[in-house]
DNA sequence: TTATCTATTATGTATGCACATATTAAATGC
DNA sequence: GCATTTAATATGTGCATACATAATAGATAA
């Protein structure tokens, strides 16, 4: 059978754009024309083009046609790593080590992040994630007890709070913030580095249907980085 | 007409997963059944399901059926920001300020990144990206002159090297690395902060068809962060 | 029992067609 | 000239259908 699937056509069009045949901002032939040129149905071309539009390579408008993007929207998808997986992928044995675990009144900025009133009592958990005994990352987490009361009894020595929560509320929404932060005393000690060292940091707040579940700050050991391709 | 489009069905299925009707790991009804249930064609259900699979919510295998992912692959898409856009979005006026600009022998680790031999001569450019006169980020870039010889004459006071290169080679592939790094003397001075301050850092190497074009390190001012939703 | 083949089946993909919808360009009215 | 309506058109979407392909379960043979 013919090998003209939508992926082939998608690739062909991509190459024509990358080769400069159709310059940024230029309009490219309509679906009907391309279908004729490649000898396939418009449906197939349509699918290929939709994919390219998803990739941010082209811009499509009804009636107006399809154009190559002026400045391609460069976007990368990062898989939000699960710390245990990262550690195990490197061949080390994972173990969470709890540094702090108590239910206390949350600081105002934490309560605000979870859209709770000032002075709300939250479950506070600080965990060092160990790979073969070495600290890979330090997690500082606050959990809304109204949303996940069982957490106080969870076996957090065996399973990390993150994974425990994923099992409880697998499909939640979240905010993710990447930044760099300076090591405080606790992190400096854990990572055996100086106070003020630059640490790659992920802040994450999670909710489901307007109920805020948890917010956490994850600080990685010095030298850690997150890699992606575009 | 009926409002049963693929997006509606996609949303419906998503909700049934999020509600816990189909638990992680469980198999969900086949396309034919769902089509019957929703009163649409299998094509439409297929499209909805493919989208959900792209989102990492479900896993599909021929013959084996579709299952809810055990641990949902959390992934976020970050738009790789163009510094000028970031600055202008905040209402400030953008201006690049060149700190260094010369063609010299590249350090070995840079030559290696661009897959060139040791001692290759490269165009080296250090730029401070200013927003209303304040330094927003410092960029340290090396350009392969074999790939983009014209860069030596580019008006880099007006347009940043990044944007100039995007125009020359709009559709290239790249590696992106997010990390935290300590401010060296140059950055400390530019950002009016102390040496060793934690800076959010993006490393990026770009190529097109096996020709490596440029590699750069972009260090953002203290406090900068990258935000996303999942 | 174990290995190999075969039929079954769920998803994957291509196509032709019809109609929806957004946007532009042309026609019309003031 | 300027505003409004109308027609033309490229993409967006849904459906029925046919066939491809991979994985499994069951049948068959060693």
UniProtKB/TrEMBL annotation, chains A, B:
<dbReference type="InterPro" id="IPR000524">
    <property type="entry name" value="Tscrpt_reg_HTH_GntR"/>
</dbReference>
<dbReference type="Pfam" id="PF00392">
    <property type="entry name" value="GntR"/>
</dbReference>
<keyword id="KW-0238">DNA-binding</keyword>
<dbReference type="InterPro" id="IPR011663">
    <property type="entry name" value="UTRA"/>
</dbReference>
<dbReference type="InterPro" id="IPR036390">
    <property type="entry name" value="WH_DNA-bd_sf"/>
</dbReference>
<dbReference type="InterPro" id="IPR050679">
    <property type="entry name" value="Bact_HTH_transcr_reg"/>
</dbReference>
<keyword id="KW-0804">Transcription</keyword>
<feature type="domain" description="HTH gntR-type">
    <location>
        <begin position="3"/>
        <end position="71"/>
    </location>
</feature>
<keyword id="KW-0805">Transcription regulation</keyword>
<protein>
    <submittedName>
        <fullName>UTRA domain-containing protein</fullName>
    </submittedName>
</protein>
<dbReference type="InterPro" id="IPR036388">
    <property type="entry name" value="WH-like_DNA-bd_sf"/>
</dbReference>
<dbReference type="InterPro" id="IPR028978">
    <property type="entry name" value="Chorismate_lyase_/UTRA_dom_sf"/>
</dbReference>
<dbReference type="Pfam" id="PF07702">
    <property type="entry name" value="UTRA"/>
</dbReference>
């Amino acid at each position: 059978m013919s090998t003209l699937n939508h992926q082939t056509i998608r690739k062909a069009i991509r190459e024509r754009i990358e080769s400069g045949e159709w310059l940024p901002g230029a309009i490219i032939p309509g679906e009907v024309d391309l279908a004729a040129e490649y000898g396939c149905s418009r449906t197939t071309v349509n699918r290929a083009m939709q994919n390219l539009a998803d990739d941010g390579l082209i811009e499509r408008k009804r009636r107006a046609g399809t154009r190559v993007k002026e400045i391609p929207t460069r976007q990368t998808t990062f898989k939000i790593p699960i710390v245990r997986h990262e550690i195990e992928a490197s061949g080390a044995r994972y173990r969470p080590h709890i540094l702090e675990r108590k239910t206390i009144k949350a600081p105002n900025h934490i309560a605000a992040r979870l859209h709770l009133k000032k002075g709300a009592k939250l479950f506070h958990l600080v965990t060092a994630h160990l790979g073969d005994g070495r600290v890979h990352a330090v997690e500082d987490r606050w959990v809304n007890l109204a949303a996940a009361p069982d957490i106080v009894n969870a076996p957090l020595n065996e399973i990390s709070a993150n994974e425990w929560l994923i099992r409880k509320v697998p499909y939640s929404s979240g905010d993710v913030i990447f930044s760099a932060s300076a090591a405080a005393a606790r992190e400096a000690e854990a990572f055996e580095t100086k106070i003020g060292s630059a640490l790659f940091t992920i802040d994450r707040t999670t909710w489901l249907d307007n109920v805020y579940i948890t917010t956490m700050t994850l600080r990685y050991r010095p030298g850690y980085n997150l890699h992606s391709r575009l």
